[in-house]
Design goal:
Elements (H helix, E strand, L loop, with lengths): L2 E7 L8 E6 L3 E9 L3 E3 L10 E3 L5 E10 L8 E2 L12 H8 L15 E6 L11 E16 L2 E13 L18 E3 L6 E4 L11 E10 L7 E4 L2 H6 L1 E6 L5 E11 L2 E2 L6 E5 L2
Antiparallel strand pairs: 1-2, 1-8, 2-7, 3-6, 4-5, 6-10, 8-9, 9-10, 11-12, 12-15, 13-14, 13-16, 16-17, 16-18
């Protein structure tokens, strides 16, 4: 069995860093519900196979995750960026406190809070990174239930909606960069191409910031800012060179006079050094 991580992103970090990462210690179940709404419009004097089906809404997806809060024998289940103060999260009481709706907790309390669920399907150290499934979005419900006969434990569950978190007070900056493709055309290198954001905001896009790091390393992102021709072409060959063997994660932001836009989806690419 692999692992499941609940991640609160650091929205003050344009590089898309993490604020908290909680590891589920006693996983019970996960469901992924994808809704694709459509409405039938049966026509008079026609059979069911002739009914017109109209789709006017987009799709939505929800994850429901259940686990049991247990004492973790002195080992904290919450990890934080290197140099930050450790979060007590070993005992049941500490874990409950971590999720409570208080300042500095995991629960959403800001318009800008963003989250990620990472489902790691294997514990293998040999290319386990290819087994990660990543969902971005936000949590809309946390539930902790105590019942007989286990009065000293809590059954926990969360509801997570997949998507891009926005708020009506956001600055008029570019939307997320779509259709990112990352390749490794030769040993130790990374190249990328991408699409134009669907919304540029109030100002024209003047450049893109490509950032990369070794996957799951916690290292600082290494940035590359595109020049005028690369910005126009929306591609950059060999933006990273001399890389060691490993899997790298890449994100791209558009930049305008209003600031950096939303980050792209994280892309993973294996590199042979």
């Amino acid at each position: 069995m692999g692992k499941i991580f609940l991640v609160k992103l650091n929205t003050a970090d344009v590089n898309g860093g993490e604020q908290f990462r909680y590891e589920l210690s006693n996983f019970k179940s996960l469901t992924y519900d994808l809704t694709t709404p459509a409405s039938p419009m049966p026509l008079p004097e026609e059979t069911s196979k002739d009914a017109v089906i109209i789709k006017v809404e987009g799709n939505s997806a929800v994850l429901n995750i259940r686990w049991k809060l247990v004492d973790n024998n002195g080992v904290n289940l919450v990890s934080v960026p290197s140099g930050d103060t450790a979060v007590p999260s070993s005992t049941i009481r500490e874990q409950l406190q971590f999720f409570r709706d208080t300042e500095g907790s995991f629960a959403p309390n800001s318009l800008n809070d963003k989250y990620r669920v990472i489902v790691r399907l294997t514990d293998s150290t040999d290319f386990w990174h290819y087994q990660d499934i990543i969902y971005d979005g936000t949590f809309v419900n946390f539930s902790f239930t105590m019942s007989t006969p286990e009065l000293l434990t809590f059954n926990a569950s969360v509801k997570f909606i997949e998507g891009k978190v926005e708020n009506m007070f956001s600055a008029d900056s570019p939307s997320a960069t779509p259709n990112v493709v990352v390749t490794s055309p030769s040993n130790g290198t990374l190249s990328a191409s991408w699409g134009a954001p669907y919304e540029t905001g109030a100002s024209a896009i003047t450049s893109y910031k490509i950032q990369y790091r070794l996957y799951n390393s916690g290292n600082t992102w290494t940035p590359y800012d595109t020049n005028a021709s690369e910005t126009s072409a929306r591609s950059k060959s060999n933006f990273a060179t001399g890389l060691a063997t490993g899997v790298y994660e890449v994100i791209i932001h558009a930049y305008s006079a209003a600031g950096y836009g939303k980050e792209s989806q994280i892309m993973l690419k294996e590199v042979v050094g």
